[in-house]
Design goal:
Blueprint (H helix, E strand, L loop, with lengths): L9 E6 L3 H16 L3 E4 L5 E6 L4 H19 L5 E6 H13 L5 E2 L5 H7 L20 E5 L1 E2 L10 H5 L3 E2 L2 H13 L4 E5 L16 H8 L7 E4 L10 H8 L3 E6 L7 H6 L6 H14 L4 E8 L6 H14 L3 E6 L17 H24 L5 E10 L2 E5 L10 E5 L10 E9 L3 E6 L2
Parallel strand pairs: 1-2, 1-3, 3-4, 4-5, 6-9, 9-10, 10-11, 11-12, 12-13, 16-18
Antiparallel strand pairs: 7-8, 14-15, 14-17, 15-16, 17-18
The protein binds iron/sulfur cluster.
The site of iron/sulfur cluster (SF4) has 9 residues, from helix 5.
């Protein structure tokens, strides 16, 4: 058992889950730093704040295990205090308080001032848009809205994040300017539903106007769109993407499924025909656009026929980027009333089949890149390689470009022109071009 005594009053923030949680942890850390607190991200500290995820079974399990791990450290005197915040805490606070009582306090997803008070710090309004980023300095997430008004049957996020609230354009521009001053070159726009932006605040879908404002931010060179929604997609966004070179020709649009009976049961408000048409319109409007999507297999009532429809469609659509999850039966969601009738092993088999198909598609698409030169941003050095990304790749989820570090030198955070020499299913290899 490790008995090292840790430095006094060092707050260690631990982030689980999605990029929106990363953003929230960064806001918390910015507030703590402004209160002259010593704060670190996933390093040693005698006070621990765990920002949890409560989305699906695997994520919940990881969050509970992380809480138990730090509670054990508290019981063995390695850490002094453990606080828990984020989605799992928002969703299951009474149960957690009963099951794991040795946590100092539990907080919800919109409880920052109280969490700060527990950490002997004050909430500073004037800090709007300022945070301590934890990502490599060349890119940062920009959360443009919180919550979600969509009725997707399988999703617990509205239970944990509440109704959709857009942030004003002027606040987001200020945030982008602050980030650019710190050396950020790539902004990754996130929300639960990016394309709903503005409907509450401006009574219209206003993502295009926000993008037109953000591209004026000096120092920002790439702006990337994540978490779009198919229904009511604001087509003027495609115009901005085509006209503004700073907007990456890239869109992440989770589609979840394509068989009409399943889309209906999922309450997605769209059909196979409409979704296919939307993607065709994307490709017409921005020819070399990279489309990332996410699918769910094993949803209640998914028949072999539904699954074959999905598989055939994935073959036909040839997404550049695709992820696939197995359905998780989440209490208090609309789908929880349905029978979770697809066996776990069948769910997993179907997910494997989709990803096998996708790795073949990705391999074929990557072969076409050999000999081409791409502007890449260099994120880090790892082992014998410098690791970069093209505008068609988002951090942590997409392809990477690997450059041999024993042959070439590149600077983290810089852009570099890279000629592709070799291509695997999910990674590319290349050399700097003159
Ligand atoms: S849009 Fe996304 S976050 Fe909102 S309910 Fe649907 S799946 Fe959940």
């Amino acid at each position: 058992m490790r008995t090292k005594t840790l430095k006094k009053n060092r707050i260690n923030v631990v982030t689980l889950g999605c990029s929106k949680n990363v953003y929230d942890s960064e806001v918390l850390m910015g507030q703590l730093r402004a209160n002259d607190k010593e704060v670190v991200h996933e390093e040693d500290g005698n006070i621990v704040v765990i920002n949890t995820c409560g989305f699906i079974a695997n994520a919940k399990e990881e969050s509970v295990n992380t809480i138990l791990e730090y509670v054990q450290q508290k019981e063995s005197g390695v850490v002094d205090k453990v606080f828990v915040t984020g989605c799992l805490s928002e969703r299951y606070k009474p149960d957690l308080q009963k099951e794991i009582p040795n946590v100092d306090a539990y907080f919800g997803t919109s409880d920052l001032p109280n969490l700060l008070k527990a950490l002997e710090a004050d909430y500073k309004h004037e800090l709007l848009g300022e945070r301590l980023t934890t990502t490599p300095k060349n890119y940062a997430y920009l959360k443009i809205a919180e919550g979600c008004d969509r009725p997707c049957s399988f999703c617990a996020i509205p239970l944990m994040r509440g109704k959709h609230r857009s942030k004003p354009i002027e606040d987001l521009v200020k945030e982008a300017e602050n980030l650019a001053v710190k050396g950020v070159k790539e902004l990754i726009l996130i929300a639960q539903d990016l394309t709903y932006y503005g409907l509450d605040l401006y009574k219209k879908r206003n993502l295009a106007e926000l993008l037109r404002a953000l591209v004026k931010t000096e120092g920002i060179e790439w702006i990337r769109l994540h978490y779009a929604f198919p229904t009511g997609f604001p087509m003027d966004v495609l115009q901005v993407m085509r006209q503004e070179s700073k907007i990456c020709n890239y869109i992440d649009i989770p589609l979840q499924h394509i068989s009409d009976p399943i889309l209906k049961s999922m309450r997605r408000g769209t059909t196979k025909q409409k979704t296919t048409k939307l993607l065709e319109d994307f490709r017409k409007a921005v020819p070399n656009m990279t489309i990332r999507t996410t699918l769910i297999v094993g949803y209640p009532g998914e028949t072999e026929e539904d699954f074959q429809t999905l598989k055939e469609w994935v073959k036909e659509m040839r997404f550049e980027r695709l992820g696939c999850f197995t359905y998780s039966h989440e209490e208090n969601t609309h789908a929880f009333a349905l029978q979770d009738d697809v066996p776990e092993d069948v769910k997993q088999e179907r997910a494997n089949e989709i990803m096998e198909l996708q790795s073949q598609i990705s391999w074929e698409l990557n072969q076409e890149k050999i000999g081409q030169t791409f502007r890449c941003i260099i994120d880090r050095k790892e082992g014998n390689y410098f690791v970069g990304r093209t505008e068609f790749d988002s951090p942590d989820v997409d392809n990477e470009v690997l450059i041999d570090a024993s042959e070439y030198y590149l600077k983290q955070g810089d852009f570099a022109s890279i000629t592709i020499t070799e291509a695997a299913d999910f990674d590319l290899y290349g050399i700097p071009s003159n």
